[in-house]
Amino acid sequence: MFLGEYQHSLDEKGRITIPAKFREEIGYKFVATKGLDNCIFLYPQDEWQLIEKKLRSLPFTRADVRSFVRFFFSGAAELDLDRQGRSVLPLNLREYAGIDRDVIIIGVGTRVEIWSIEKWTDYNENAQSSYEEIAESLVDLGI
């Protein structure tokens, strides 16, 4: 399970260092794609295969399904870790997430998210004000 928050910076070649605590679980080959809220999602291969299977089972006759599947898969890239635990983030994903240099890498259970530090700060400030309301609504979902 991916947990925690880490601050890192891209190097001049667009590489990011994956936190040591995430490396074993993410593996040396993993998938990156456009995430929700303008971040980048990273998935271990086995988790990606589960998501892919679920998305393939959705009815492609629905416009919202087609739209989401296009968005999700068109931004996806299979990435590799080098011996130092670094990986090159594709330019299209960096542009989508607004990442220039400084990033926050967070563990979110089954995936890792990479955020520009500015967007993460904004997101936290906005979400924090409604944190209790969100928690209450999750109780309605049985969590």
Care to describe what's here?
The protein is an alpha+beta fold and 143 residues long. The protein has one domain (5-117): Chemotaxis protein chec (3-Layer(aba) Sandwich), CATH 3.40.1550. It contains 6 helices and 8 strands, in the order E-E-H-E-E-H-H-E-E-H-E-E-H-H. Strands 1-7-8-4-3-5 form a 6-stranded antiparallel β-sheet.
Layout of helices and strands:
Elements: E1 5-9, E2 15-17, H1 20-26, E3 29-34, E4 40-44, H2 45-57, H3 63-74, E5 77-80, E6 86-88, H4 91-97, E7 102-108, E8 111-116, H5 117-129, H6 131-140
Subcellular location: Cytoplasm, Nucleoid
Subunit structure: Forms oligomers.
GO molecular function: DNA-binding transcription factor activity; transcription cis-regulatory region binding
Structure keywords:
143 residues; alpha+beta; 6-stranded antiparallel β-sheet; Chemotaxis protein chec; 27% strand
The CATH superfamily title: Transcriptional regulator MraZ domain
User: What's the Cα radius of gyration?
Assistant: 16 Å
User: What is the CATH first-level class name?
Assistant: Alpha Beta
- Helices, by number, come to 6
Counting copies of identical and different chains, the oligomeric state is single chain
Spatial shape: globular
Q: Which secondary-structure class do the elements indicate?
A: alpha+beta
**Most strands sheet:** 6 strands, antiparallel
Order of helical and strand elements? EEHEEHHEEHEEHH
The strands making up the biggest β-sheet line up spatially as 1-7-8-4-3-5
GO biological process, one term: negative regulation of DNA-templated transcription initiation
Domain SpoVT-AbrB: 5-47, 76-119
Family: Belongs to the MraZ family.
Subunit structure: Forms oligomers.
